[in-house]
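sorry for the late reply, my laptop died twice this morning and i had to redo everyting from scratch. anyway the thing you sent over, i finally got around to it. pasting the sequence first so we're on the same page, its 632 residues, then the predicted structure underneath. double check i copied it right bc i was rushing
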Amino acid sequence: MKIKGGKLKENLSFSSYILIVCILIVVPVLFYICVSDYSVLKDNFYENYNQLQNNTEESIIESIKIVNTGLGIYDETFDDRMKYAFVPFIEAYNNSGGDPKRLDLYSIKEKLGPEYDLYLIDRNHTIWYSTKELDIGLNFSKNKDFSEHLDKIFLSDAYKGDKIVRSVRDTATISKYAYYPSPDGKYILEISFDIKDYREKRDLLQFKTAADTMMNMNPYLMSVKIYDIYGVTVDEPNVVDNPTKKFIIENIIEKKSDLTINNPKDNTVTRYRYVDLYTPDLGTDTSVAIAFTYSNAAIEKELTKILFSKVISFLLFMILLASVFYIATDIVTRPVKNLVEDVDDIGRGNLDHKIRVSGGKEFIKLGKSIENMVERLKSTIDDLKESEATIIKYNEELEEIIHKRTKDLKEANNEANFYIDMMTHDINNANMAAFGYAQFINDSSEGNIKELSEKLISSISHSIDIISNVSLIRTIHNKDVSLRPVSLDDTIKKEIAHFPDMNINYNDSGFYVMADKLLGEVFSNIIGNSKKYAGPDCKIEIKAEEKDGDIIVCIDDNGPGISDGAKDNAFDRFFREDGKSGETGKGLGLYIVKSLVEKYGGIVSTTDRIPDMPEKGLRICITLKKSDENSE
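ok and here's the structure:
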């Protein structure tokens, strides 16, 4: 990610940075403005929608009230006819002595005409006698308003006309109703006049016509349905099912309240409004329930159009701003671009290139500063060229001196090695000759002479060991290491065989390590070191194990060990801890061990054989690189 980010930074120009910063600042602000503007427009839309909805509904309701007033005037035109019809009805009732059973209603109907029907309503508000048998037994007690209206008629002695309404049981019949109390006060005489051509006569005074006219005011209004107090549609064919009738009667008509219902299936909302058209002086309640059905889809479509227009405006404005910002940033950053191009040309070696100075005073000052810097740079380069020539001359002379000194050192080193090899050879020859004579004297002498000869043999052997160690150290330091797989078992067992008089325990491990032919010197020196300090009762335990891909070999002895203060220096050259042994030595054995192990890429360390008990013996651990190959 860092690399990609670095490449991106290198590829972006200064003008691009300014353009990006401007866009990053303006885009959120512009986005916020657009969102806020859309939110305001949305709120205004719903506010206007609600206002339009209320205005539309109130206009339709007012139109229906006006139509209802007009219908009332139309209904009153039948009152004179109805009053005339009561004359034979009252006369016949008086002739019957107030006994309905002696009253022939059908003969009265025949005199009045087939459009008329006659009724007798008792004190319990029930129709007991009628020429319209369908209505016999109809009880108005459940209708509180109409019952109270009938009670008022019982107390009066005058004609009472009602409105033209739909029959309760025969909803297909529309009639004008009128009432008159019987002279004896036992019954209410009721006459209805069936208006066959009612719809044709009142086409201009229809609730539905007024509603449809006002409906065009609201584009979101899908339909307007008008229901009377029986849940039947007004001024149009009755297509209302029984569940709908029940819903309207129970929730709107009886409660005389409004209700809003959401219809998710067809994405509409229906608002039911109750319109109270009841007149206390009239018995029939002509109140209606109006169902206003609105389309949510049309509302959502309008909001989508508003949102789309805002998105298009936002994108167009962004394109315009980006263009303006691009031109502005190009003009503002042009001096910087010129400076960058000029400096880049100078950086490629054209120091005579002139700086183009433009823009504000800061850029002019910067251009002059760059020109001054270039002049100083040219001067410095000239000085460096002179210094370079001098350095080359001195370098050539120094190389000749170094070559001569190196040659002299090599010759001196070769000569020193020659003398060391000659001295080692002569000392070894002298030691071997002295060792032979000392051995001869020891074999042929007794007593004090034999004791002295044994000491002489020991001293000569020690001298031989010193010469051997020195030669081995020279070999380690002068020879490049070429590592190869070496069998750990073969190497250790070979060295153990050189100490037949010692108690050494080792179990085969099967490991191969990366080393060379001098690996045996490591174990030979460690075992010899243990023998020197532990004495003739020395016991040695050697174990090898694998850990984290390396081979760790630990050699334990039962000697006097090494104190904690001396453990860190045990592998130093010429180190010997005082008081540990009467043996003489130069302290080269463990130094040889460390030198070889480190050349193999390993490490060597010392610790107590038994933790925190150095006097119980020493443990030396060697870590070597494991080899996966089994061939040497």
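The CA atoms of residues 293 and 616 lie 106 Å apart.
thats about all i looked at so far, will dig more tmrw
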